[in-house]
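During the practical work, I selected for study one protein's amino acid sequence and its backbone structure tokens, as given directly below:
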Amino acid sequence: MVPRMTNSTLMRGAGGHPAHKIEAAKVGATQAPAPLAQPLSHDAPASHVSPPTAVVDIVLPVYNEEADLGRNVLSLHDYLDDQSAFTFRITIADNASTDGTWAVARRLAAEIPGVTALHLGEKGRGRALKAAWSRSDATVLAYMDIDLSTDLAALLPLVAPLVSGHSDLAIGTRLARSSVVHRGPKREFISRSYNRLTHLLLRSRFSDAQCGFKAIRADRARAVLPWIEDDGWFFDTELLVVAERAGLRIHEVPVDWTDDPDTRVDIVPTAVADLKGIARLRRALAAGKLPLATMGGRLEDDARAAAPGRESLLRQLLSFGLIGVASTLAYAVLYLVLRAAMPAQAANALSLLLTAVANTAANRRLTFGVRGAGGRLRVQSQGLVVFALGLAVTSGGLFLLRRYDPAANHAVELAVLIAASVVATLLRFVMFRAWIFPRRARAASTGGAR
């Protein structure tokens, strides 16, 4: 039998009692130890032993780890007991092991408070993480490799920015200058080459896609996970690329990492699968199949759900107004520069076009909270329609000026154009709220409720 764990007293509640341990002990006292079980067949449903609610849920995806599972889970539990500032849970996600891994996992879940076990009938790290994270009620969802290749000292820096709300995802990176990595030249070359490839083909900016040490806020996971197709090793890369394109904040933590010589990764098939995954994801991004703008918008709406509607509307008006002032100043400067080289109507059209593109991009991100590349072309296309209406207003103003005062100088022209631009700006705000970003407008008027 796995020995029972002793509880540290670092995390104490009122009266000096260990807060996390009290809750866990109650569950352990009322739950009979689970009987030993043989590994389930590939078609069998998952089994799940429910633990108490935790702030951080650390998932350990495992496949045929019978020899090391007990020792490493105990090491992780001891470390969290002594060092963690948050209530935690350890979830062992066994994905179709063929040895005694599932039996060991059941024993650990029965004997150790805060440990739970989940069995899936099919292999795949991505599949295991989707299943475990989807069932979890924790605030932050993390995972790490069971071999504990990553030094556990990086665990709290990984999850702290997510608990505080500073970031949406956090990843360990072995490629930072301050990281200390012990692995052979072959694995080092493969890792660096793969990350260079993702930067080139997927335009990613994170440094280390495949380090088995990541965490995500649960609300962000609920928005992003349904769009992650891969169930294997490419899951990490796809998750990060989609999240980055949706505008989520990714925090990187340098780690100390020691290569496990007994790795379960089959390099050649994994590399082929990763290349196929990159090609598939490139096609999906190019075709606009992923609703990145909607993903980012839903997350922004969730973050603003408690804000009163009037305050949200005022915030939008203030942001739109400040951007409008900057756009008008830029328009005036451009017009005066271009007017010296071309007729008034041409200078007006070109100045308005250039500032309209910049204005639309700024309002998309700052006023209506849309981040990521998804939907940018559609927004700019609709913005050009709004630009055409603004051009009609300002050109009409110039036409009337020339009709009634043909001798008006450039200063009078500019004054008329600025007045017409104010009218065009009001029209642009109405069109943005009613047509280009209608869901954002509804969120503002209803306090962000969905």
